[in-house]
Amino acid sequence: MSQQLMGILPMLLVFVAFYFFLIRPQQKRQKERTQMLGNLKKGDKVVTIGGLHGTIVELGEEKVTLKVSDNTRLVFERSAINSVANAEEAGAAKSAE
């Protein structure tokens, strides 16, 4: 009986290590990203996955229209938004104080 347990124990430890080092952090990042995409609003300064910086001028269920210059507006899928620049600037300002 203890020989069987000793044979299974390393596999169990590997699974636990994979869960805590790979699976759990990925789930946490995905949850934060989903929350960020859900909290988008007009006027937010965002960065797309491709590195394009712009300001949200129109927001739909699946599409986001960004103003990238005075005359240029581009339409993206909501999932193409990588980060909100407003949140990063606010966090940097708080840490500086």
Automatic annotation (TrEMBL):
Mode of membrane association: Single-pass membrane protein
Keywords: Cell membrane, Membrane, Protein transport, Translocation, Transmembrane, Transmembrane helix, Transport
Transmembrane segments: 6-23
Source organism superkingdom: Bacteria
Keyword Hydrolase listed: no
One Pfam family this sequence matches: YajC
SMART domains: YajC
UniProt-annotated location(s): Cell membrane
Family: Belongs to the YajC family.
Protein name per UniProt: Preprotein translocase subunit YajC
Gene from which this protein is expressed: yajC
